[in-house]
User: Fold this.
Amino acid sequence: MCGIVGAIARDDVVPILLEGLRRLEYRGYDSAGIALADGGLRRLRTTGRVSELSKLVGEQQFQGMVGIAHTRWATHGAPSERNAHPHFSAGVGNVAVVHNGIIENHEKLRQRLQSAGFEFLSDTDTEVIAHLITLKLQQTSDLFEAVRLSIDDLQGAYAIAVIEEAQPERIIVARNGAPLMLGLGEHCNYAASDASALLQVTKRMIYLEDGDVAELRRDGYRIVNCLAGVTSKEVVRAVYESELTDTDVELGPYSHFMQKEIFEQPGVVANTLEIVLNAHSISPQLFGSDAEHIFKQIDSVLILACGTSYHAGLVARYWLESMAGLACNVEIASEYRYRDPVANPKTLVVAVSQSGETADTLAALAYAKSLGHQHTLAICNVPESALIRSTDLRFLTRAGPEIGVASTKAFTTQLAALMLLSVTLAKLRGKLSSEREREVIAELRHLPVALKHTLQVEDQVMVWAERFAHKNHALFLGRGMHYPIAMEGALKLKEISYIHAEAYAAGELKHGPLALVDEDMPVVAIAPNNALLEKLKSNLQEVRARGGELYVFVDSDSTIQQSEGMHVIILPEHTRLLSPILHTIPLQLLAYHVALKKNTDVDKPRNLAKSVTVE
Ligand code: G6P
Assistant:
């Protein structure tokens, strides 16, 4: 999604703005731009990459001490130079605006502003903000005040940064429903939509809250909260020392972030499980001080999530049902928020999100609360996210920043967290003996090593990837708790290799998709040695009988042999309950290596965004 960087300093800020944009590239974008306020309002925009923008900057000797920059992921208006941010409004002061989010009442505002004589040069919702500020500057000459008055008229989600030619000694930013933070330096201050953009210059950050409008000067800042209907007042927000290091968001020896993140999994899963790995029992406190009290009141679980996080929720349903005996629903957040579900106040609502900023997940959670759900838990990877602040209970996965758009390590750490939740609830409900708890802890303790061993299948997967690269379609099959893993494998393949991939519960094959099977349709199957293995083998025979080529991931004791049309990779480890986590690894590797063969942009697949902060 879109990214914002702003900087004000005593010397040239353009290199900082460009480096900030470079670090935000991972979020996904289709155009980029930069504007400076001092020495006359100027801008450069391109539909190319940030490197293209850097080239333009070099050619035109574009320098200044106050600026804002943006990467745009098109929503209103095609990806084109005229729609790229910053947007200008000429008038009293000449302002430039960058914006993340969506202004829902932009059409009405556009009509109003056009009647007032403003000429629109883009198709974006953002341009209304620029003209609105100019309109307000006719009432007040103060830019801060003009921004504050403007946001009263805006409906929707936004993070904005504004500069003005007439007042080049400050940047004004505002946030409502889209992430925005300030970075503090010595005689220089910054703003960005994501901490990774600012680590190059500072670790001291302030996370703005909804309704905050802030003014950044070289030697100071102030924040006023202007929540609608409440009188504006100056507020003090805590300054955080970011724990992220510059290298957390650097590639190091890897070719792609996705590759780095796949190989980080043993370490980050160990980090996520750290508190448990040295313990003899699992405590509800892991989820918050009030967790035991809340968990004892619940009789069911509702998981809300999108994308890969939704797949993690689907796996958890099997664990929660079988271990804790709890009814569990897993809902796609964008669907749930527009249904009329019947709320049960004894349900634990679990929102799962890597970023904690996904608009649909946040809205679904708010909707669940409005329906009367009282118990909420966030499983999230970003401590400062909106999601973490929205629930009674929380568990932080410790995957570290995930830069590749295709989620990998966030998924396996979410699964680790959801396993802890299942064990905790099972225990509180008297469904888990101490002996069984010790066994599960032993499995969890072994998980990082098992993941490390599983990564060794990479060479074999690469051989398969060669064959997939020439295909247009693929089917993924799984049963039971490995069916969501098949879904995740198919999602990974389509996201980064653009091969059309569908996942089916293997038992459904004969109800339709079997019609698609021929020698051009590779069929990937996840075949762990579990109670459903014999059933799955029958499904695989159905494929073979129609000339389908099978690619099967098995456990060493799955007793599936390599044969004509049946390619087999044996996973070196077999962990029973945690098997979905291990079986994810070869599917991630398969998607990665197919994408490499197809020479696609692995970390920034076309049209996709890392964090979907709009509906
Ligand atoms: C986007 C990302 C996916 C992610 C999904 C949900 O589509 O590209 O990788 O799974 O959003 O994101 P969340 O941050 O809520 O887990």
